[in-house]
Amino acid sequence: MSIYSGPVFEMASRQFTVIADHLAIPIDERSRLLLPKRAISVSCPIHCDDGSISVFEGYRVQHHLTLGPTKGGTRFAASVDIGEVAALAIWMSWKCALVGLPYGGAKGGIRVDPAKISHRELEALSRRYMQEMIPFVGPHVDVMAPDMGTNEQVMAWFMDTYSMYQGRTVTEIVTGKPVGAGGTLGRREATGRGVAHLAKRVLKDLSIDWSTATAVVQGFGNVGSYAALELSRSGVKIVGVGDHTGAFYDRAGLNVTQLIRHAARHGSLSDYHEAPRLDPAELLQLPCDVLVPAAMERVIDDRVARDLRCRVLAEGANGPTTPEADLVLERRRNEIFLIPDILCNSGGVIVSYFEWLQDLQQLFWEEEEVMRREYQILDRAFNDMVTRAARDNVSHRTAAMAIGVERVRAAKTTRGLFP
């Protein structure tokens, strides 16, 4: 029996098995590498605006602390469960190891629909969640960040709550904070910028001119919107976008700035009338040079993978492609250049690492320095991945995950088993 279950955790486990088989990791070592070190489940009661009391379930999973503190986002969503959180923590471990950060993976969440609670209730819930987590987190134990349903304001509440209990301001307990509260320039844009940077690099390697290239972005939150903006600024034509409220397609190109302004004003793309609407189910099959799935897990299954008409698949979301779809993409390796999630969306945790460093040192960088260092790390990890893929004749996902798993395994082997 295990407390971890569900399709997302099963997917992470199957991916790990593929890598463990590829690396010939002995069976008796695998559970130690895969299963999280610690899982916390808490009840978060709050006073509601109508005078009643509601209790929300919260979770935090810390995968491993072998290389340093754990690092990972906190999502507020109605679908959150312990299996999903554990899977995301595992992926974060391989991601941090792949790009060379001194972190293990973590993830947290509360099962709540943020759209159904008030601003005051959101603050109360955020503060109560951090209060319950205080015995298990710290700047050198577990550092939180935003994710789906959370933002800079929630991180500020987290930081303030932790600081009140410590009796001093501890900005380094979370990343993704407002710049005025110890955040770093460039953090909000970091993940989307990283996705665009790698996509543009691949287009260049494939001799596809940015000025003639097209892109489709599924998901228009923080990651998708900034990826679209950075691609469009480089001359790439954004022909399709969509979120959970609707999708839009225009072969002549969409006005990304206008879309971002609408989403910021209304909270989604709902009621946007400046472009032709499209069935959201068709968005992923649109012909394009770059496809960016930047929404939820498991949106590309084997059926969708067979119908993809992109040249570059840049995974802005965590786990957007199922193991069955990976088998299809393996057969289409010469048609579709895959930039796997643990590399493609790692810009966020890279710049979160920079924020943590700046908070610890109380020395802050200019945005140009943040971006330069982010792209430098992304390029190095990209080179490692493609070199490994070519050497072993494996997919980019297998190569990227193999590097991450190997580095975590090597650290565990060096440190040994205590006691």
From TrEMBL:
<dbReference type="InterPro" id="IPR006097">
    <property type="entry name" value="Glu/Leu/Phe/Val/Trp_DH_dimer"/>
</dbReference>
<keyword id="KW-0520">NAD</keyword>
<dbReference type="GO" id="GO:0006538">
    <property type="term" value="P:L-glutamate catabolic process"/>
</dbReference>
<dbReference type="InterPro" id="IPR033922">
    <property type="entry name" value="NAD_bind_Glu_DH"/>
</dbReference>
<feature type="domain" description="Glutamate/phenylalanine/leucine/valine/L-tryptophan dehydrogenase C-terminal">
    <location>
        <begin position="184"/>
        <end position="416"/>
    </location>
</feature>
<dbReference type="InterPro" id="IPR036291">
    <property type="entry name" value="NAD(P)-bd_dom_sf"/>
</dbReference>
<feature type="binding site">
    <location>
        <position position="95"/>
    </location>
    <ligand>
        <name>substrate</name>
    </ligand>
</feature>
<feature type="binding site">
    <location>
        <position position="71"/>
    </location>
    <ligand>
        <name>substrate</name>
    </ligand>
</feature>
<feature type="binding site">
    <location>
        <position position="191"/>
    </location>
    <ligand>
        <name>NAD(+)</name>
    </ligand>
</feature>
<dbReference type="InterPro" id="IPR006096">
    <property type="entry name" value="Glu/Leu/Phe/Val/Trp_DH_C"/>
</dbReference>
<dbReference type="GO" id="GO:0000166">
    <property type="term" value="F:nucleotide binding"/>
</dbReference>
<keyword id="KW-0560">Oxidoreductase</keyword>
<feature type="binding site">
    <location>
        <position position="222"/>
    </location>
    <ligand>
        <name>NAD(+)</name>
    </ligand>
</feature>
<keyword id="KW-0547">Nucleotide-binding</keyword>
<comment type="similarity">
    <text>Belongs to the Glu/Leu/Phe/Val dehydrogenases family.</text>
</comment>
<feature type="binding site">
    <location>
        <position position="352"/>
    </location>
    <ligand>
        <name>substrate</name>
    </ligand>
</feature>
<dbReference type="GO" id="GO:0004352">
    <property type="term" value="F:glutamate dehydrogenase (NAD+) activity"/>
</dbReference>
<dbReference type="InterPro" id="IPR033524">
    <property type="entry name" value="Glu/Leu/Phe/Val_DH_AS"/>
</dbReference>
<dbReference type="Pfam" id="PF02812">
    <property type="entry name" value="ELFV_dehydrog_N"/>
</dbReference>
<protein>
    <recommendedName>
        <fullName>Glutamate dehydrogenase</fullName>
    </recommendedName>
</protein>
<dbReference type="InterPro" id="IPR006095">
    <property type="entry name" value="Glu/Leu/Phe/Val/Trp_DH"/>
</dbReference>
<dbReference type="InterPro" id="IPR014362">
    <property type="entry name" value="Glu_DH"/>
</dbReference>
<feature type="site" description="Important for catalysis">
    <location>
        <position position="147"/>
    </location>
</feature>
<dbReference type="InterPro" id="IPR046346">
    <property type="entry name" value="Aminoacid_DH-like_N_sf"/>
</dbReference>
<feature type="active site" description="Proton donor">
    <location>
        <position position="107"/>
    </location>
</feature>
<dbReference type="Pfam" id="PF00208">
    <property type="entry name" value="ELFV_dehydrog"/>
</dbReference>
